[in-house]
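Write out a record, focusing on structure:
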Amino acid sequence: MAGFAFATLGHAEDKIGEVTRIAMGSCADQEKSQIIWEAIVELKPELFLFLGDNVYADTEDMGEMKAAYRMLGEKPGYQKLLETCPVLAIWDDHDYGVNDGGAEYPAREGAEKEFHRFFETPTDADIRKWRGIYDVDYFETENGDRLQLIRLDTRYFRSELVELPERSRNGPYDRNRDENATVLGQEQWAWLEKVLSEPADLRVIATSIQFLPQDHHWELWENFPHERKRLLKLLEDSETGPVIFVSGDRHMGEIMKLSVDDPDSPGFPVYEMTTSGLTNAGGGMKGEPNRHRVSPTNFQSRNFGFMLIDWAKRSVQLELRDVDGKLVDHYVISLEAQK
């Protein structure tokens, strides 16, 4: 953590410092054993990024949600993590409060308060000024290399899902073609356009649901195909350069790449690593269709993600590791090739 100044453990208040080792994960059932924290701590991350379903609290009772967070906070492994590095987070459906839920969830304001309480969001932080839990952080090296970490909220404003007439083996949801339907909502879209116009040498975008996949019918951005295309077009118009999405939700792990030859390409490669889950794994089908996957298959056991940034070599290594910390998949990205 050399070079960092953190006002509170769990929130990067000073948006400056060098970070090259980022661990991440999602889907941590507080009622299950969480031995995976030992392997994560062993790698000495400088930052941990929670990608949603940080607890399972499908409820409108904020007392129950608070109790779920308390159980996570009391886990010995999680306490060791907090002693090792700061934690930043987004939420997904189960810590938002309802399975596959969006803007229709009536207790979202209460859930937002519990999120900020547990993750100790400073009362004067920008994220407290708006609805939803989206935010951005910056980390900068002594040489001026700048990492932008964008955390999206895919729940608070999201329109309702459209179900398939008959559930498919690849999921229950159809594509919502309504141009007025949304994932991020007007407020968050305006904010995102602004932050993407700011300079960065590497951008990491955290989204609880998968962004690149288009071939399954579980929750993903492709449920709202116009919203997925809108974000890719925004990346193109903003000339953002290197972009890596990180996601959770699916109870499996995989690494993906959107080729520059893809009709939706912003003109440079876009990458994604899905890592799920810390306790819950075995989601979907092994090897389910995914035209953008560069992994040999989708890893079905408990896992976490690790990102190694080498500014000197201008490269990023994405890693998927199992419950014991063993490397099960990796992919190296050249930042120079993105320009």
